[in-house]
Amino acid sequence: MQPTIEHLEKIIRIYSRRLEALTDEIYDWRSAPEKWSKKEILGHLVDSAQNNIRRFIVAQYEDTPTILYAQDEWVARSGYRHYPVRSLVMLWTLLNNHIVKILANMTPEAAQRKCAMGGHPQPLEWVAADYCNHLLHHLHQILDLEPIAYP
Question: What range(s) does the DinB-like domain occupy (predicted)?
Answer without folding.
Answer: 8-142
